[in-house]
């Protein structure tokens, strides 16, 4: 039978080694060298290619429409949630989540540079996920050219005295916009699918939620026996942190969903547009956070090499804490 005191010491050692080590000889230049530069360069090239695609396409696809189409006859209202809010709030939540998660790993130890290197890796991938999603969204808007629910209010066409009902006409037969709001507003009226607000809000929210789930429930797994050996106060603290973490994750998803709903309420998008935007943002977020977490071991190993305490065979390349 194993000595309970020995088991307790092993549990304590495991908890200590799960924390970030000291910085050692790690420099700020080493923090930059340790980043996943292959991924960074690939994302920059991808973003440039998407931007060029949008610029080359330039004008949105012209789709035929009818003056008596009820789905595009809604009033033109201001945005309930401006685009900058849909970007800034989820991004700040992402920064808070990552900073809190990596600060908890440091646990008061002098490992600021190590934690910063991990934060930089995680935040950069989150930003790349957002920029790629935004550009793919814009490419979709230009190629599809779906009319917004308030398109006729933007176009202000004059209804003919006598109506002739016809179907299957080309876009060239569209009624002329006699007094559009502005040229930019009229062009924007062709950018309904997919919703940029929705894709942006969801890419940040799902990326942050994915990171939060990994940090709270998977990063440092403990066995049931290890949990039972801890004091009641420690167990209650862990349970409270897990519960508060769940509320934080739900709040981020709720905000993203609120942004999506507001686009339908404001008559800026059809329901299918916001669903498409949400799925697009979610897909890229899952792709990026899954790959980012998997590549984090590469960064931590490079950090250990830069710090001069690399140990082959260890989980992150660094030696156990004495």
From TrEMBL:
Where does the sequence pass through the membrane? 37-57, 81-104, 116-136, 201-218, 239-260, 272-290
Entry GO CC: membrane
Question: For the Phosphatidic acid phosphatase type 2/haloperoxidase domain, which residue ranges apply?
Answer: 118-289
- Quote the subcellular location field of this record: Membrane
Please give the chief subcellular localization of this protein. membrane
Which InterPro entries did the record assign? PAP-like, PAP2/HPO, PAP2/HPO_sf
Describe its membrane topology. Answer: Multi-pass membrane protein
Q: Which GO terms describe its biological process?
A: phospholipid dephosphorylation; phospholipid metabolic process
Q: Which GO terms describe its molecular function?
A: phosphatidate phosphatase activity
Asked if the Swiss-Prot or TrEMBL record annotates the protein with the keyword Transmembrane helix, the reply is yes
Name the domain of life.
Eukaryota
Keyword Ribonucleoprotein applies: no
Q: Which UniProt keywords apply?
A: Membrane, Transmembrane, Transmembrane helix
The text of the family note is: Belongs to the PA-phosphatase related phosphoesterase family.
Q: What is this protein called?
A: Phosphatidic acid phosphatase type 2/haloperoxidase domain-containing protein
- What organism, scientifically named, is this protein from? Auxenochlorella protothecoides (Green microalga)
- Lineage of this protein's species? Eukaryota, Viridiplantae, Chlorophyta, core chlorophytes, Trebouxiophyceae
């Amino acid at each position: 039978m194993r000595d309970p005191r020995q088991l307790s010491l092993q549990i304590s050692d495991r908890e200590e080694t799960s924390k970030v080590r000291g910085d050692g000889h790690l420099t700020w230049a080493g923090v930059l060298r340790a980043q996943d530069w292959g991924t960074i360069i690939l994302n920059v090239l991808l973003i440039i290619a998407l931007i060029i695609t949008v610029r080359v396409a330039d004008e949105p696809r012209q789709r035929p429409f009818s003056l008596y189409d009820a789905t595009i006859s809604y009033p033109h209202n201001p945005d309930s949630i401006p685009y900058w809010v849909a970007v800034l709030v989820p991004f700040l939540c992402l920064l808070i989540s990552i900073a809190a998660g990596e600060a908890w790993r440091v646990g008061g130890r002098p490992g600021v540079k190590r934690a910063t290197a991990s934060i930089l890796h995680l935040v950069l991938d989150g930003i790349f996920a957002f920029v790629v999603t935004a550009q793919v969204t814009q490419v979709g808007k230009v190629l599809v050219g779906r009319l917004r629910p308030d398109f006729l209010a933007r176009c202000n066409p004059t209804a003919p005295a006598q109506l002739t009902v016809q179907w299957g006409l080309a876009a060239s037969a569209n009624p002329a916009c006699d007094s559009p709001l502005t040229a930019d507003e009229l062009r924007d009226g062709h950018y309904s699918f997919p919703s940029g607000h929705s894709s942006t809000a969801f890419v940040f929210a799902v990326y942050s939620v994915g990171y939060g789930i990994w940090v709270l429930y998977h990063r440092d797994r403990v066995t049931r026996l290890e949990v039972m050996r801890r004091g009641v106060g420690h167990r209650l603290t862990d349970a409270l942190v897990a519960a508060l973490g769940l509320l934080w994750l739900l709040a981020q998803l709720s905000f993203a969903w609120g942004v999506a709903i507001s686009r339908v309420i404001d008559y800026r998008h059809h329901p299918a547009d916001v669903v498409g935007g949400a799925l697009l943002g979610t897909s890229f977020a899952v792709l990026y956070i899954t790959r980012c977490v998997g590549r984090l071991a590469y960064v931590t190993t490079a950090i250990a090499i830069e710090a001069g305490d690399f140990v082959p065979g260890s989980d992150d390349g660094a030696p156990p804490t004495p």
